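Input sequence (231 aa), recorded before submission:
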Amino acid sequence: MDALTEAFRLIITLDPDLFEILGLSIRVSLIALAIATVIGLPLGTYLAINKFPGRRVLITLLNALMGMPPVVVGLMVYLMLSRSGPLGGLGLLYTPTAMIIAQVVLITPIIAALSNQVIENLYQEYRDTFYSLGITGSKAVIAYLVDARYSLTTCILAGFGRAIAEVGAVIIVGGNIDHLTRVMTTAIALETSKGNLTLALGLGTVLLTLAILVNGAVTAVREFAKRRQYA
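Predicted structure, token format:
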């Protein structure tokens, strides 16, 4: 209880170390989310409305990659960015950029697979209507995206929730370096192993709050979409 009380004191007094870690965590996750969204949404939409050989294989692969172990992602990115790897000359290993790359690899399949399911359902529903009205190509894609905006928002929020709670991949490629690559999840693991429960509990409280806010946002978006649908 003493440690928990001290943890809340750190939060209330805006402890610099705690909020430095929090700021880096949010910055890395938001940048990774933006990149993953730019890649994942078009990819999911393309797979939903286009028919070509191997399409089902790609969709199955995306669905499988949604559950890819984070440590495997971290290992893959590490091998790419290590000094002996193909991108070793860039010197990105153990930097926030490496952590962003790992999170992009991790959450892009989630956003792509979920958006594919959303757009494919709309495509099956509106395909004949759009064809009869002569709505094809980019106009049809825009119509699908606008109509599915609330569902796609939940897909993006799901990606952010996955990114902000990630520990396995980012600790492999980031190294958990103080004042450089230490994020909430890696800091919690380190401080707990050191016996510093105060900072660990403070970070855990903030992380839990963020998880609740993200899930609350997902629920709110779904409820708002339902009300708009039946209004």
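Checked by second reader. The mean pLDDT is 85.
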